[in-house]
Each structure stands twice: as structure tokens, then as C-alpha cells.
Amino acid sequence: MFITRRGFIASSFVFTNTAFSAAASKEQTIKLGFDNFAVRAMQWNARQLVDHAVALGCDSVFITDFGPFEDRYDDSSLRDISRYGLDKGIDIALGSWSICPSSKTFKADWGTAYDHLVLGIRMAKALGSPAFRVILGNSSDRLSQGGIEARIADTVKVLKQVRNKAIDAEVKIAVENHAGDMQSRELKHLVEEAGPDFVGVNFDSGNACWTLEDPVQALLNLAPYVLTTSLRDTMIWKSENGITTQWTAMGEGCIDFKRFFEIFRKQCPDVTVHIETISGFPKSFPIYEHDFWNLFPNALAKDFSAFLTLAKKGNPIPTFQPAAKDKLQSKKIHQISELERSILYCKNVLGLGS
């Protein structure tokens, strides 16, 4: 691992913020790690991801796609990786992609949606991951035939088919609020319809903002079902055609993470915090255009009001422009730096990590 200049500057800042950190450290320990998508440009395999978690002083790594296992999905290979992590004090959590057969994001790379879930459950058990993270789709599914309600029904149907396998393996399915597909109340409905005894939530704070929700309010709605997390900060501001959001490193947006973790510590005390920094590009929501609300026909006024309150606090931030000569290297440095600053903030300001 290398420490970037911005990471060093961030460390100088966060180490001075001791008041809240000292108070938080008196609370119960919450494990801290990162989602491998945060450093996707590095194209690391599972062992390299574990090594980076060690270098950052983390407790866990969340591998949310099968790529880092390099096509070696047999139990023996996966157990070897699990032992590699445990020997270094690193837990490994597992995830993959869409298990909604009617979603526009679904791919048949691992067979049917049922096949995909069965494979993920087996892999999670071999790795020692108590949950297997999946997604429904993205915002385009909200405008598909039957709307998001039909996609939720299709996902519930598939989930119920693997109930016994999941329970026997002692692996729960963590469905993420992903890329604007479901608002928190819709995801809560999915979990309750499928069965909370084996289905829960992977809570993504940045994606909550893409469904016009304050992540704090979204957490309140979903907290009883949260199994795993993929967190990052978001800057939100009023723009010419409505509201603009941009994901950013922890502590550099306008989300009230102090309040967020007051709730999290009480209601999700045994859940690991994984940081998934994805940043550098804005996403705008033309809220004053009538047709825009076809995306969210059942949005609650009080939830949207909380989101608007955040927009009043925020301000525009620069986008990320990779160097023209070596875009890949530029992306690597940017992603490493964003994650470094986020982990430092989580440790020294929010008091996370063991």
C-alpha cells in the first residue's frame, strides 16, 4: 500500500478530531472494512484485497463480485482464501449481482437466477461469510413493465425457492438498495415478503440518495433487517434543474454520519461497516419536471423533505478528471486516496474498527 498526499493531509485532519472519536470509542466495537468495488481499478485478486485490508488496518473485506476468485469457485479453493484472511485477522464477506430474472441488469453468466443464488450460498458458506449480497437491478427497472413492484415480486419468487438451502447453510441473503432501484420502504417490503428469517439488507448510503432519500431516514426504515453495508458520503445541492448529487469520500459530503452511527450502534451493533467509495461524477434529478415523478409515484413527502433539507446544506464539488496520458493509473491513485481518507475518517472521527 502507498499513502497518497491527500491521504496524509486527511490523516493530519482527522487525528485532531478527537472529541467525537473519544466518545465513540466508549461504545461497542463495530468492525470496519471496505468493499472491493472501491478499488476496482486495481483489479486485485482475493488475497491482494486481504493484504490491502491489513495495510489499512481493517477488520474485513467485502468482495462483491466473483472476479477476484479468478474462476476458482470450488470449496477447497475458497476455504484456502478464508484461512488466508483469518490468519491475517481479516473477515471475508461475499456478494454478487442481480438475481431478478426480469431486471434489465440480469445476466445469465452463472445460469438462472436460482443457479446464481445457489452458487453464491455455497461460496459464502465455504468462505465463512454469514451473508451473500445480491441486487435487484437499477433505476431503469422502475419504468419497466409493471414497475418496480413487478420486479420485486419476481425477486421474492426466486428468493423463496432457495429458502431451505440458505437456512441449511446458515447464510442469509442481503439484498442491496442498488443504483436507484428501490426506495427503503420498497426494500423493506421485499424482505418481509420473502422472509426475514433468511433475507435481509445490504445498506448502501450512496444509493439511498439516488432514490431521493436521506440515508439517515433510510437507515431508520431498514435497520432491523440490515446484514451488511456498502457506505460512502454524498454531497447534495440545489442545481439549475432540480437537485444534484455526487458521491464522495467519508466526511466530505453533507450526510450526518454522527446521527447515522448513533442509530447504527443501537440497531445494527453486530454489522460490519464496509466502505465503498465511488466518486467523481454528478447525478442530477430534474425534480421540477412533471414526468420525472413517474420514477417515484409513491414517494412520501416526509422522506423527500428530509432529502431536500440535505440539499440546502450542500454545495457543488469538483468532478474527477483522470489524467489524459495514463487514465488507468490516475484512476488507481484516485480510488486508493478516496478509500484511505474514508478509512481514516471512520476510525478517528466516527470511532469505527477494532
Description:
Helices cover 42% and strands 16% of the residues. The chain contains 13 helices and 11 strands. The model is unreliable at 1-25 (pLDDT under 50).
Which descriptors would you attach to this protein?
354 residues, alpha/beta, TIM Barrel, eight-stranded parallel β-sheet, three-stranded antiparallel β-sheet, 13 helices, 11 strands, 16% strand, disordered N terminus
Summary, kept brief:
With 354 residues, this protein is an alpha/beta fold. The protein is 42% helix and 16% strand. The chain is built from 13 helices and 11 strands.
Give the SSE order as H and E letters. Answer: HHEHEHEHEHHEHEHHEEEHEEHH
What is the percent of helical residues?
Answer: 40-55%
Beta fraction: 15-25%
Q: Which residues form runs of ≥5 with pLDDT under 50?
A: 1-25
Silhouette: globular
* Mean pLDDT score: 93
Rounded to an integer, what's the Rg over CA atoms?
Answer: 19 Å
Task: Using the 3D structure, state the CATH architecture.
Answer: Alpha-Beta Barrel
Roughly how many Å apart are the termini?
Answer: 20 Å
Query: Structural class of the helix and strand makeup?
Result: alpha/beta
> What count of structural domains?
1
Number of helices: 13
CATH class: Alpha Beta
Going across the biggest sheet, name each strand in turn.
Answer: 7-6-5-4-3-2-1-10
Q: Count all strands and give the number.
A: 11
Largest sheet: 8 strands, parallel
Per CATH, the superfamily is Divalent-metal-dependent TIM barrel enzymes
